[in-house]
Amino acid sequence: MSTPDGELSPEEQAIIAEEEAVLRRVLAAVEGARLRSGHRKQETEDLITRLQELRDDAATAAVADLPHLFFQMDQTRALLERQETARLPELGAPYFAHLRVAGTTGDRDYLLGRTSFADVSADVRIIDWRFAPVARVFYLYGEGDSYEEWFGERLSEGTVKVRRLVVIERGLLSRVQIGTRVLVRGPGGVWRRLGTGWGSQLEGGTGTAVRPGQLGVGRGTQQREGALDVTALLDAEQFEAVNVAADQPLLVLGSAGSGKTTVALHRLAKIAFDEAERYPESRMKVIVPEEGLARLSRRLLAPLGLGKVSVETLDSWAALTARVAFGAKALKPWEDTPPLVAKLKRHPALRRALAARLGVLSSSATALPRLRKRLAELFTDRRFLESVVAHSGGDLPSTAVDETVRHTMLQIATPIAHELEGVDPDRLQTLDGKSLESDTPDELAGTVDVEDLPLLLFLRAQAGSLGAVGRLVHVVLDETEDFSLVELFVVGRLLGEARSCTLAGDEMQQTSTSFAGWPAVLAELGIQDAATCRLQVSYRCPAPITALARQVLGTQAPGEPPTAGREGAPVGLHHFPDEAQAWLFIGEALRDLLEREPQASVAVIASGREQARAFHRVISDMSWARLVLEGDFSFEPGVDVTDVDNVKGLEFDYVVIPDATAQAYPAHDEARRRLHIAITRASHQLWLVSAGVRSPLLAGV
Ligand SMILES: Nc1ncnc2c1ncn2[C@@H]1O[C@H](COP(=O)(O)OP(=O)(O)OP(=O)(O)O)[C@@H](O)[C@H]1O
């Protein structure tokens, strides 16, 4: 299957020579434009000084001189406006792809980048991937294909003669990809062709053989630079999705790692670029369930020119929105809601029960104290809660009723501080300086759960408006399967009539049982006609991992398996009699890996927080080991020890699951989805390690 790395053929040498010549031309043309704009800068400064002088003159001039001075000021201003210079491509990496088309007027070269630039005399045309009509030809056709595309009113026909992806680093060409052929510049500037085996595709063929018991395929041997820009890689289906009209709601579905986030964020960039006035960055938002994905999304948005778009987690968005809608001081949010109570408050059955019990409140009934009282009544009403549990389809156990009542009773108790009003504040502190109620159940008194915030907003939004909360012109919801129905309702209200949004999701990755199906999601957002795209190719995970992920899902797996993007290392399964041995083995393997591949990104994904903490102790003395339990990923090389709840939407070169046991992952739908999420974070290699009884989800592997 694999062919060795090789010397370039004469044809490939010619390709490299051609690409280097193109790059030299581009760099010279951009540098020329930069110098010209530098000269213009001096002229601009002179004009500004001149304008200032004229203004000063006008302040003291005789009335008769004013018309003449004003005329001069107008002229200077007009000259200044003409000085405005366009942004120039970055010299370090001015484009990421090369397209040559043969049309009726002969051959023409286009380079795809993030900033348009043309110097026709130097035969340089860099087009912006977001809006240049000819970018369609790049994304939708392959080398040798004939195309027919309408560019506005004009039908354009031709043939794609060259379609190459290029990587330019600090102004130097380092990689050229033509179809599946990859040419890379090696040390000393010697070019070679990478073999087609999976190992060498990853890192260039050296040190990539996988031996059983050894982690690593060579991915982390080099700095991460030199990777192809994902904007250049968008496939035809993804490109069409990115180009769906801005006012059309879009649902992007697909299995793990098929490019849903990639499409959603590129669409945002396209919309912001095409219709900057209607869709200002300040009124667009990305909302995701977890902190880790929020951080990753910010990192992905920056190179797309969307550094100002706000990215929020569901909790921080709800807290901020509630603060604006209800007033900052009125709410004391509680973040440690017991899991069962949180689950009940986010479940679709609660949304339906609320509708049946409360209907739509009148706006006079939505003052915060009244809304809180309403919720408190409901969450202490056993019959109401029993009906929620009864309609939860088995998701909620009956113990959720007692737990919710008990928890709410503590919240509605009067805080000690109120009862002791008038007492000397010094006497209301414990010896260690804390307040009397801290670390006691009384700490809960007067709080609202973070899960209550969307409910309060929902009741208020249903009755009228959310007051000062700003309208949104477009929103991206990622991992939409984890949004509760009430959260979706509130987002819908903030979008107003247009409902311009991109919803990315995969029902196989729901972890919070708040998902009620895509029709319910759209209905709650008030959307009747969403465009839907289903991404088919699994880009992140190699074939062995995609196959295992499907097996783990069991009967929940969707009908059509995704197309595996590439071959890859076999999944490693390691079983030990006891946990100490298993973890020692992982610790050793990680040390060995990081010595060989110091640039690798590795995640040890435990089933829960406590397991992550416990495993972290095994390697905590290593400088590259980080415990990440609040989504605070640094995206630096090294090992993140974390748990399933933290990693949705993320990816790592290597993933180790340290507790693939029957206890952590029993044969049960939610466990299947959780293991599936952990497995599909790996982009190069996966290990499943177990001690005691191995998870039944891995039977036969
Ligand atoms: N057309 C493509 N060609 C090559 N790589 C791609 C392509 N599209 C996306 N990718 C890469 O695939 C990986 C997964 O993409 P992305 O995170 O967008 O997937 P996702 O469907 O949102 O994943 P998840 O379901 O885990 O949230 C990323 O590394 C991304 O850069």
What does the model show?
This protein is α/β, with parallel strands linked by helices. The chain is 39% helix and 19% strand. It has 22 helices and 25 strands. Strands 1, 2, 3, 4, 5, 6, 7, 8 and 9 form a 9-stranded mixed beta sheet that branches. A 6-stranded parallel beta sheet has the order 12-11-15-16-10-17, sandwiched between helices. It has a 6-stranded parallel beta sheet with strand order 20-25-24-21-23-22. The protein binds adenosine-5'-triphosphate.
Mean pLDDT across residues? 88
User: How big a fraction of the residues is strand?
Assistant: 15-25%
Name the overall outline: globular
Helix/strand/pairing class, anyone?
alpha/beta
Helix run count: 22
Stated plainly, the CATH topology of the largest domain is called: Rossmann fold
**Helix content estimate:** 25-40%
At CATH level 2, the architecture of the largest domain is 3-Layer(aba) Sandwich
Cα distance spanning the termini:
23 Å
Short recap of the structure:
InterPro entries: DNA_helicase_UvrD/REP, P-loop_NTPase, UvrD-like_ATP-bd, UvrD-like_helicase_C. The protein is α/β, with parallel strands linked by helices.
